[in-house]
Design goal:
This protein has about 350 residues and is α+β, with helices and mostly antiparallel strands. The chain folds into three domains: about 160 residues, no CATH class; about 55 residues, Roll (SH3 type barrels), CATH 2.30.30; about 80 residues, Alpha-Beta Plaits. Helices cover about 60% and strands about 15% of the residues. The chain has ten helices and ten strands. A hairpin with a 5-residue loop joins strand 5 and strand 6.
């Protein structure tokens, strides 16, 4: 009697087939619960003990995003032995494709957010850079969702080739129309990731120099030494040779001084030693050399080279000023005179 009931047909399937499908579904649910109660909980406890955060992310993704997919997978597998109405089968297929796509996108989004927040956002202290990173993160989410929707439409049987072609042609036309803007935008990301300079850096581009005040999507603004604002397109900056003085660990200083031709040979020999002792006695300097370098039109010229430890311009000027004062003091003590432009007229008396 019971065997007869199991063999009876209902909506195109035997009653036994329905029981098999129900049993498969229940067995799958039980297996998922065992995995969740024993394996997943132990993995979660293990991940909390480790110093890394990636394992925490993977366990969290497995619990929140993979388990729902397991339920959908169990349901889809359990109904496979059944002969379903084509319309109902199509609806179930669409439902499964949509669910799988959504959870796959959520998984990719979790990885994207993890990478940005762990390796970039936590390392960035500047508000502008953190804002830019969040803009990049949002753009990445939009791209992922756009690709996912196109793939979903294609799997649902919707012809997207014409749509993609239309978008490609439209994008090409827009690209030509806003080529300069897109180029500046691309170079903004080049500046952002390559970091040739940062906010507060003192840089020189060609004949212009100033402190970086703001790095925007299209332009970068500098404040010059005289106070006015200099505006450069990002493309101009990436195409130029930039000298960044903030990256300089020490400043090389070369200066010359001249003494009069009436200076004695003994005094000339003492001058390099005098300058050497002065520079070595000044803090935050490294002496390199001091030489009697050449004969000028109205002076005997010495060339001096030393290094200032640091990149601050005011510090360099203060040190140079201190050195200049001490050289004047030592020269005054020894009667050594600095040269200045002069002309000497020699008159010879001719007897007649």
């Amino acid at each position: 009697m019971f065997q007869e009931i199991l063999q009876q047909s209902l909506y195109g399937n035997r009653v036994m087939d329905y029981f098999i499908a129900l049993g498969t579904f229940l067995a799958g649910i039980i297996a998922i619960q065992i995995f969740k109660g024993f394996v997943l909980n132990r993995l979660h406890a293990w991940a909390e003990k480790t110093a890394h955060t990636l394992d925490d992310l993977l366990v969290d993704v497995a619990g929140k995003k993979a388990l729902p997919l397991f339920y959908v997978g169990v349901f889809y597998l359990s109904i496979q032995p059944l002969a379903l109405n084509p319309a109902l089968s199509g609806i179930i297929r669409i439902f499964v494709v949509i669910v799988v796509t959504i959870y796959a996108v959520r998984f990719l989004m979790s990885l994207l957010v993890y990478v940005f927040e762990t390796y970039w956002l936590k390392k960035e202290q500047e508000t502008s850079r953190r804002l830019a990173l969040r803009v990049i993160l949002t753009s990445g989410k939009i791209v992922i969702w756009t690709v996912a929707v196109i793939i979903l439409m294609d799997n649902l049987g919707i012809k997207v080739s014409a749509l993609v072609a239309g978008l490609g042609i439209g994008g090409l036309a827009i690209g030509f129309a806003v080529q300069a803007i897109l180029k500046d935008l691309f170079n903004y990301f080049v500046i952002f990731f390559d970091r040739p300079f940062e906010l507060g850096d003192f840089i020189i581009i060609g004949d212009y120099m100033g402190t970086v005040e703001n790095v925007g999507i299209k332009t970068t603004r500098l404040t010059s030494l005289s106070g006015e604002q200099l505006v450069f397109s990002n493309t101009d900056l990436t195409d130029s040779r930039i000298r960044n003085y903030k990256k300089m660990s020490r400043r090389r200083v070369v200066f010359r001084l001249g003494v009069i031709y009436q200076t004695s040979t003994q005094q000339m020999k003492e001058i390099p030693g005098i300058i050497t002792d002065i520079i070595k006695g000044v803090d935050d300097t490294v002496f390199d050399r001091a030489h009697f370098s050449s004969y000028g039109d109205f002076s005997l010229i010495f060339e001096v080279v030393y290094y200032v430890l640091g990149n601050d311009y005011s510090k360099y000027m203060n040190i140079q000023q201190e050195i200049n004062f001490k050289i004047m003091e030592e020269f005054e003590k020894r009667g050594i005179e600095f040269a200045y432009p002069t002309q000497t007229l020699f008159i010879s008396k001719v007897d007649r």
